[in-house]
Amino acid sequence: MKTSVSAVVSADYESLLRSESYIDGAWVAQEAGRRFAVTNPASGLVIAHVPDMGRDEALRAVEAAGRAFVSWRQLLARERGRYLRRWNELIVTHADALAALLSAEQGKPLAEARGEVLSGAANVEWFAEEGQRIYGDTIPTHKADARVIVMKEPVGVVAAITPWNFPSSMITRKVAPALAAGCTVVLKPAEDTPLSALALAALAQEAGIPAGVFNVVTASLTSAPEVGEVLTTHPLVRKVSFTGSTEVGKILMRQSASTIKRLSLELGGNAPFIIFDSADLPRAVEGAIGSKFRNAGQTCICANRIYVQDRVYDEFARLFTEKVKALHVGPGDQPGVQVGPLINQAAIDKVKQHIQDAQAHGAKLLCGGGSHEAGPLFFQPTVLGDMASVMRVSREETFGPVAGLFRFRDEAEVTRLANDTAYGLAAYFYSRDLGQVFRVAEALEYGMVGINEPLLAAASAPFGGVKESGIGREGSHYGINDFINIKYLLVGGLSSPA
Ligand code: NAP
User: Which positions fall inside the Aldehyde dehydrogenase domain (predicted)?
Assistant: First the structure.
């Protein structure tokens, strides 16, 4: 194995490292033997090869999920909850090995990877319980001899498509509520990070989750559209749950229109992070570091535009830059590392372009700005000051370790700037003025707002965006509703016979 962990974790890692897809309860290769390599972005070394599935395998997985749905939906919610609890326990038991695998294929520091695995497990634990609280309704009747009842039913087969930046928790956030609600799932993980998905499937199998209930179809970048087409057009698939870029979300939405599928879209963001005069400055600095540099800046909710009010701008810039300079960059499996590599060369190129564009428009480089000596996919944590709205960072996700500081005058100006984007996923602000807290929270056109807090995600809270950041919510009781159909029963003829 390629990470420096203990012998016990190492053996566990090997046992969870799968090189086949998981369809209908069996580990299968692509029929013609087509495979693609999964590499460690820190070292460039190949970790494994997995099947490059296409249309036929996607069809098989959908049909298997369709067959499994018939009996899975019939189980008591408590029985499905039991399977999910066993799955959760296994994920927790194997957390170190899963973290090593995640860090190896994705690059994030081991401690962060472990945090992701455990938050992913928390989704499973939470929905194991929530599945038992999918209550229906009775409504006061409009006919004296009839009763109005609302039943809740699973939507059916769910197609889940997930990104590389959170290869474990993005999966459980979809699969756990779907399974708890009585749906079955076909998952297509990202090309860069299929190993965490396969390891989760191995543990689902060990937990006894029946064949066909949870299927994982791995595919390369080239085959993804072919697999995606089956998942978004097959009549058996009743819902598509996607996390990824807005661009791909639009394609999948168009394709899903052909059979009017239910859709959940967790798409891109461009989060404003606002520091008002009244903020607790050291807390705001810590928050901005956590929000911006977690996962090397590759999170959909990470601060992309840091707005600092005039009076505290210079002090914030000084404190923040000092901390950024001290961040420890290196391979995720090395002790003390806080910022790992970026996922691929395209990510490095985008970061460089954003920096060049900002500098060409007058931004000042406060630290970093170039490649990092740790390797080709490492980049120096960077701070740019004197940012302006004309710059690309204002409009696009940077998805890398680059923090741009914008100066603003007042509340009205900053709320206008914060909302001046097609995205509406997460926003943050720091203020100790209670009136301002409510005014700004209500004015921000975002699905989630962190107030004096940078970490938003939790199994029990509704995660999701507005505008071009998507539709639907994940997590919480709102999240499970996305996997449920409402059925209205009108039961008539109830008056006593004459
Ligand atoms: P992406 O390119 O949109 O890919 C996401 C997934 O879609 C991958 O599995 C990808 O497969 C697949 N895919 C791409 N084209 C497809 C097609 N035509 N048909 C079917 N599947 C297709 O996004 P990414 O670069 O992996 O992830 C980063 C993006 O995700 C960022 O924009 C980030 O903001 C967003 N994100 C949002 C949230 C949220 O909760 N809102 C959370 C995390 C990330 P391949 O890997 O094989 O291309």
Answer: 27-488
Could you read off the pLDDT of 18-69 as tens digits, one per residue?
999 999 999 999 999 999 999 999 999 999 999 999 999 999 999 999 999 9
254 and 276 assigned to the same domain: no
- Distances in Å between the Cα of 130 and the Cα atoms of 213, 310, 402, 459 are 19, 46, 39, 11
For 3, list phi and psi in degrees, rounded to 5.
Answer: -115, 150
In the predicted structure, residue 401 carries a pLDDT above the cut 60: yes
Q: Whole domain around residue 310: which residue ranges?
A: 272-451
Structure confidence at residue 2 (pLDDT):
46
Both 77 and 52 in one domain: the answer is yes
Answer whether 426 contacts ligand 1 (Cβ < 6 A). no
| Long-range contacts formed by 293-296: CB under 8 A, 24+ apart | 293/324, 293/327, 293/338, 293/339, 293/381, 293/401, 293/403, 294/112, 295/108, 295/112, 295/165, 295/166, 295/340, 296/107, 296/108, 296/339, 296/340, 296/341, 296/342, 296/379, 296/400, 296/401
* Domain membership flag for residue 54: yes
Query: Which residue blocks in 223-309 are alpha helix, DSSP H?
Result: 224-233, 246-256, 281-293
Indicate if 266 belongs to the active site. Answer: yes
- The CA 404 to ligand 1 mean position distance, Å, reads 24
| Å from CA of 378 to ligand 1 middle | 21
Of all atoms in ligand 1, which is nearest to the CA of residue 251? Answer: 18
Residue 230 lies in a domain: yes
Exposure string for 61-99, b = 16+ CB within 10 A, e = fewer: bbbbbbebbeebeebebeebbebbebbbebbeebbbbbb
* Distance in Å, CA 164 to ligand 1 centroid: 7
Same domain, yes or no: 108 and 133: yes
Is residue 396 in contact with ligand 1, taking CB distance under 6 Å? no
| Annotated catalytic residue, options 57, 105, 116, 266 | 266
* Statement to judge: residues 363 and 387 lie in one domain: yes
Q: What is the CATH number of the domain that holds 343?
A: 3.40.309.10
Q: Is there a domain that residue 457 lies in?
A: no
82 in the same domain as 174 = yes
- Average of per-residue pLDDT across 375-402: 97
* Closest residue to atom 10 of ligand 1, CA basis: 190
Residue 464: inside a domain, yes or no? no
**Which one of 116, 245, 455 would you pick to mutate in the ligand 1 pocket, going by the greatest count of ligand atoms within 8 A of its CB?**
245
- Ligand 1 atom at minimum distance from 247 CA: 3
- Ligand 1 mean position to 245 CA, how many Å? 5
Summarised one tens digit per residue, pLDDT across range 258-278 is 999 999 999 999 999 999 999
Which atom of ligand 1 approaches the CA of 474 most closely? Answer: 40
- Residue 184 near residue 29 (C-beta atoms within 8 A): no
Residues 261, 279, single domain; the answer is no
